[in-house]
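Design a sequence for this backbone.
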């Protein structure tokens, strides 16, 4: 790894412009609409999230929010699929 890289003065060959495919800066700071709530959590839960947040260099409240979002997303999808199955059963029964 101590060898120096030797560059040569060779032609670059066929160059072409690559279209810009990156998202706009505004799209990178996407945030869901937030609602402030007051909630009492057990000391054990808060201590757990604070410890995990320290390990991963993030905020414990953000971890809790993401956990709740994932839970809500999972259960809202399963509710939709259950209601779709129920409609299918009702349609077959008619």
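Sequence:
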């Amino acid at each position: 790894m101590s060898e120096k890289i030797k560059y040569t003065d060779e032609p670059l060959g066929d160059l072409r412009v690559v279209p810009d495919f990156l998202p706009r800066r505004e799209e990178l700071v996407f945030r869901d609409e937030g609602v402030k709530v007051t909630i009492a959590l057990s000391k054990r839960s808060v201590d757990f999230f604070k410890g995990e947040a320290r390990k991963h260099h993030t905020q414990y409240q953000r971890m809790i929010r993401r956990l709740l979002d994932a839970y809500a997303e999972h259960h809202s999808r399963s509710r939709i699929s259950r209601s779709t199955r129920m409609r299918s059963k009702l349609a077959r029964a008619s």
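The CA atoms of residues 11 and 17 lie 17 Å apart.
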